[in-house]
Specification:
2 domains; alpha/beta; Immunoglobulin-like; about 20% helix; 6-stranded mixed β-sheet; about 280 residues; 5-stranded mixed β-sheet
C-alpha cells in the first residue's frame, strides 16, 4: 500500500489579496519532518519522499502526496460543513420573530392611537425594519467563473453573520487549488490530479499525486491557487476570484523500507523475551 504524505498550504488571504501575491503570505507544512523535511512553516518547504526500496534493492510501492489548503485567521475547516448555513438560518429566524413582534405592536398602536401618532408610526417602523435587516446580514453570490463557493450570508472571523456596516474582517472562503505544474510534473516525477472525496470540508475535492520514487533528487513544483475577494458590483456583493501561485519542492531520497520499530528490514517483528512468572510462596 502506498504511503500517504500530507502537505498543508496555509495562506494569509487578506494580505495576499492586498498584494495580489503569495510572496510572504504562504506557509507550508507536512508530516515528514521525522524523515528530514525542512522549512516547516515557511515558504521554503522541502518535503522528503523516501524512495521505497526493499533491502534487496528492488522497488517497493509508490508514494502519494496530498495537498490541502487553508485560510489563515478564518473559521477552522474542521468546523462542520453546515455551520455557515446554520448561522444564516438562525439570523433569519431571529429577524422573522422580531418582524412579527414589530407588526403586531405597530398594528396595536395604530388602532389605539388617533391621528396624532399615526404619522410617527411609519418612521419608527421603518427604522426598526432597517435594524432587523442589518441583523440578517449581507449576502454574497459567486460569479460564474469561480470554481467553488455557494451563495450565502457573509460571516465575520468570529463566525457571526456580518451586517452591512460590519468591519471588513470577513471569514474568507477556503483557498482553492486549481492546478500543479513545474519541473516535478514536466519531468514526470509526480503525477498530480484532482480527486473527489466524501469529505465535504474541501467541497468534496482535493489534489493528490503519485511519486516516481525510483528517481532520487530535488524537484520544484508550482501550486496554482484561487482566492476570493468580496467585491461590490452594482450594489450587489460578489466573491470575485483572484488567481495567484506559489512554489515548493520535494526531495526523493533512496532509502530502503525499514521496520519503524526496529530500524531493520521489513520482516517479522521481534518480541522481547517473556519474563518468568513470579514464584508464589507456599504456606507451611
Amino acid at each position: 500500500m502506498a504511503q500517504q504524505h500530507g502537505i498543508i498550504l496555509m495562506i494569509d488571504v487578506e494580505n495576499a489579496l492586498r498584494t495580489r501575491s503569495l510572496d510572504g503570505n504562504a506557509y507550508w507544512f507536512d508530516n515528514m519532518r521525522f524523515l528530514g523535511s525542512t522549512g516547516q512553516g515557511t515558504a521554503n518547504l522541502v518535503t522528503i519522499v523516501p524512495g521505497t526500496y526493499y533491502m534487496d534493492g528492488s522497488q517497493a510501492t509508490e508514494q502519494v502526496l496530498n495537498w490541502l489548503p487553508a485560510a489563515l485567521g478564518a473559521i477552522p475547516p474542521t468546523v462542520p460543513r453546515n455551520y455557515h448555513v446554520e448561522q444564516a438560518r438562525r439570523s433569519e429566524q431571529a429577524a422573522l420573530r422580531e418582524l412579527r413582534a414589530l407588526a403586531s405592536g405597530s398594528g396595536g398602536s395604530g388602532a389605539s392611537d388617533g391621528g396624532g401618532t399615526a404619522g410617527a408610526a411609519p418612521a419608527t417602523t421603518g427604522a426598526e425594519v432597517e435594524r432587523v435587516a442589518r441583523q440578517v446580514g449581507v449576502r454574497a453570490r459567486r460569479p460564474r467563473s469561480s470554481r467553488s463557493l455557494g451563495t450565502g450570508q457573509v460571516l465575520d472571523v468570529m463566525g457571526r453573520v456580518a451586517g452591512a456596516d460590519a468591519p471588513a474582517a470577513y471569514d474568507y472562503p477556503t483557498p482553492v487549488i486549481t492546478g500543479i505544474t513545474g519541473p516535478a510534473v514536466e519531468e514526470k516525477v509526480i503525477y498530480p490530479a484532482q480527486y473527489g472525496s466524501p469529505d465535504m470540508v474541501y467541497d468534496g475535492w482535493y489534489w493528490a499525486a503519485t511519486v516516481d520514487t525510483s528517481r532520487p533528487g530535488t524537484y520544484a513544483y508550482t501550486m496554482h491557487v484561487q482566492l476570493h475577494q468580496l467585491h461590490q458590483d452594482d450594489g450587489e456583493l460578489v466573491w470575485e476570484p483572484v488567481d495567484v501561485e506559489c512554489g515548493s519542492s520535494l526531495k526523493v531520497i533512496k532509502d530502503p523500507k525499514r521496520n519503524a520499530f526496529t530500524g531493520a528490514g521489513v520482516g517479522t517483528l521481534p518480541l522481547p523475551p517473556v519474563p518468568p512468572a513470579p514464584s508464589v510462596p507456599t504456606s507451611p
